[in-house]
């Protein structure tokens, strides 16, 4: 299928973001940059007729990753996928610098299968919330690998059709987790939203899209945006039985013209640096502070530890917060000023401090229902606060949390420099890049925590 005449081309970026999408000419606002026909997009609609059916069906992530896995280019062969070969040939060669790769490798090295060396060290230098979120990403990866592995074991003929020699060599998919990781990370870092399902918010609404997937993320530059497809306009899934969905057109930024040679960006979403690093393997640089998303941190692991330190009482409080939808996802923000905790965190701390130490057993608290009701009223906004003393204790707890985060960040930044100088200097071509990302993550922890401490000192209302 032909892609329409395009006004952009992929080119190596000046910085470390790999390839980017660049304007071939001056382009006015809201102008179509290119159109990719539905048949040239890689998604469940274009792929499903090539694979035996299964129940439950493979998710869109699983089927796209399966297809890339079967056709990962290999230096030992010139064979390529007859459907999407030219597109697959220009995907990144590897994801060695991606933190999920280190995580998966470390699990194997602890089983003695590979030497986890530098990767284990990189992992040990990450911030607590990045480490925690990496567990989530790793679980999702392993669940998809298990499902695809089971599918291939039931459908060995699919392996025989692979152009990836490590999959088609007759040993089955067993040994090829690294090829699947490469495939899965391509899906995770390059897919965009695209309607394949009836429900607009179905997580299966995604596709790989040639050319567009060279667009880097920016939270500060004017960004390109997809033209609404027919399915989006009419709020319907593409008709059943069709072998492709709608064509995909990308438009130039709506409110600014682009000059020939400019890089064109996409906004991947309003994400924290912690999330960008776990999902995509990069962070917004610190120099683009304010509007770039630098200045928002998730501190859930630190707060979780406070609850767990309270033993049985902490467990009970956790159950309450889970039931009421306030457990986890606790954040601090630099802007809008004054730097502040988010409402979820304030609400969780109010509960923690409604049952202060040293009480460790909930059955010792006679008025527990009364305390819970007061907390609920504050949580749902029918009262401003629980009490003056509760507010004071919460602020002290928050102060303690922020001091801990800023202190840990300060010492980790120094530690990081030493470890990179002594152990990782020659680890790989990208270790400087990784050091920059990890240092930015720690600096952000330090700056946000210090900013919230300043707010507390100034008596800011949250
Ligand atoms: C959809 S691809 C974009 C094209 C990619 N740069 C390439 O060379 O193929 C997404 C990946 O590009 C990189 N990337 C995107 N935006 C970036 C940015 N602002 N800074 C650094 N790397 C970025 C990350 O590695 C991310 O996983």
From TrEMBL:
Record GO terms (molecular function): protein-lysine N-methyltransferase activity
Keyword flag Signal: yes
GO biological process, one term: methylation
Ranges for domain SET: 6-269
Keywords assigned: Methyltransferase, S-adenosyl-L-methionine, Signal, Transferase
Superkingdom in the source lineage: Eukaryota
Matching Gene3D superfamilies: set domain protein methyltransferase, domain 1
Record's protein name: SET domain-containing protein
Organism listed in the record: Coprinopsis marcescibilis (Agaric fungus)
């Amino acid at each position: 299928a032909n892609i329409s005449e395009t006004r952009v081309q992929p080119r190596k970026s000046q910085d470390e973001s790999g390839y980017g999408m660049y304007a071939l000419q001056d382009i006015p606002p809201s102008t179509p940059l290119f159109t990719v026909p539905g048949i040239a997009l890689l998604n469940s609609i274009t792929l499903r007729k090539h694979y035996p059916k299964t129940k439950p069906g493979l998710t869109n992530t699983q089927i796209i990753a399966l297809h890339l896995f079967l056709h990962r280019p290999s230096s030992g062969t010139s064979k390529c996928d007859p459907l999407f070969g030219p597109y697959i040939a220009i995907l990144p060669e590897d994801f060695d610098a991606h933190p999920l790769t280190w995580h998966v490798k470390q699990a194997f090295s602890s089983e003695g299968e590979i030497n986890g060396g530098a990767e284990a060290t990189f992992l040990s230098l990450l911030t607590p919330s990045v480490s925690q979120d990496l567990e989530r990403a790793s679980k999702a990866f392993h669940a998809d690998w298990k499902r695809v592995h089971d599918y291939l074991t039931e459908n060995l003929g699919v392996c025989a059709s692979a152009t990836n020699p490590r999959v088609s060599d007759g040993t089955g998919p067993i040994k090829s987790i690294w090829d699947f990781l490469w495939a899965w990370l391509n899906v995770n870092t390059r897919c965009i939203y695209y309607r394949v399902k009836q429900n607009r918010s179905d997580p299966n609404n995604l596709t790989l899209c040639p050319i567009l997937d060279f667009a880097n993320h920016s939270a500060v530059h004017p960004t390109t945006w997809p033209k609404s497809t027919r399915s989006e306009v009419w709020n319907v899934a593409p008709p059943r039985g069709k072998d492709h969905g709608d064509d995909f057109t990308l438009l130039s930024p709506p409110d600014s013209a682009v000059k020939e040679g400019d890089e064109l960006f996409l906004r991947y979403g309003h994400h924290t640096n912690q999330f960008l690093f776990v999902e995509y393997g990069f962070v917004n640089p610190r120099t683009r502070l304010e509007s770039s998303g630098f200045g928002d941190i998730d501190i859930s692991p630190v707060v979780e530890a406070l609850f767990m330190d309270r033993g049985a009482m902490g467990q009970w409080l956790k159950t309450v917060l889970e039931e009421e939808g306030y457990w986890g996802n606790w954040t601090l923000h630099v802007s809008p000023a004054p730097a502040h905790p988010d409402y979820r965190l304030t609400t969780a701390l109010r509960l923690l401090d409604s049952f202060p130490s040293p009480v460790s057993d909930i059955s010792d608290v006679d008025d527990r229902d009364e305390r819970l009701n007061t907390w609920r009223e504050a949580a749902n906004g029918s009262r401003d606060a629980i009490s003056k003393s509760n507010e004071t204790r919460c602020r002290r707890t928050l102060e303690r949390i922020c001091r801990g985060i800023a202190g840990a960040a300060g010492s980790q930044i120094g530690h990081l420099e030493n470890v990179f100088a002594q152990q990782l200097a020659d680890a790989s071509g990208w270790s400087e890049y990784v050091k920059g990302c990890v240092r930015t993550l720690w600096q952000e922890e330090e700056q946000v925590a210090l900013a919230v401490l300043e707010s507390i000192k100034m008596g800011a209302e949250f």
